[in-house]
Amino acid sequence: MDTKKLFQKFVAFTTAVHRVKHEMTKDVRTGEITPVQYDILEYIAVSQPVTLSEISDCQHLSMPNASRELKKLAEKNLCEKFAASEDRRKQYIRLSKKGEAMMNKVFESVEARFLERIKHASEEDLKEIEHALDVLHAKAFYS
Amino acid sequence: MDTKKLFQKFVAFTTAVHRVKHEMTKDVRTGEITPVQYDILEYIAVSQPVTLSEISDCQHLSMPNASRELKKLAEKNLCEKFAASEDRRKQYIRLSKKGEAMMNKVFESVEARFLERIKHASEEDLKEIEHALDVLHAKAFYS
DNA sequence: CTCTTTAGTTATCATTTGATAAATAAATCG
DNA sequence: CGATTTATTTATCAAATGATAACTAAAGAG
Q1: Above 90 in pLDDT, residue A86?
Q2: Fewer CB atoms < 10 Å away: N or C end of chain B?
């Protein structure tokens, strides 16, 4: 196998994923939050409940900066902190009602665009897409 | 086909691509340039020669901001502008020798990590990966 | 019970990024 | 030719982000 060619495809593909993701989410960000705050909210939505340390690690933010941004999100009533019973230093974070509502709207909108994007795909195509997602996730974009 | 489930895979996959790309490129950025400047350089490297307007469009930067960042890159001798003969308002932009050298090193390093990432894949696996890249690029992450 | 480590906060400062207004200069349109 | 559009620049300001130091409070180790 010509891995050089494979690598080029890998790069082009990665760029395409970036572009498409940006296009699908660019206007879902309300004026209320910054890009970094949106990323944090998205992460919480998918992984809640999470700790501050996890946000810091996964979003590549220092603890002080993560703490600051989370405070702003809490002030905007988009997420809530609650103490962990096992360890009183820790706190778990989850979306508030308002945060849930916002992220639900976001995901609905993104899903609609996704469906639009695959609307001309046949049942076969969809199977192929699903399989391709599984393959790449497992063999190239694993953690 | 359960498109709900497919959408969830799509989201999880997109996140994984982000994460992997970040991991593969995080330390290739020398201290000399900012993240936005790195993105511009990467875009020039792949698409050169490009115009300022193209950078502005593709990198989602306003013209004034694109112009500013490009000026900084030119001052660092990482890229060069040259007038377009057809239209004297335009200028084409390409990497300088130094910029080429920098980006070559970057791509080498990323390629090495890519190879590391797929080193345990069999010849069959590689074929499957390549096919999956083609399928997804054409049917889900097209432009 | 001290010592060290872990989780998180607050404050501060520098840098980066984004947004906007106003300018130049060349191309194109009528 | 004059008016408009296109490509780009410069300047300026506000906001977002990143980095660092110094702090509190609880947990865990010996």
Answers
A1: no
A2: C
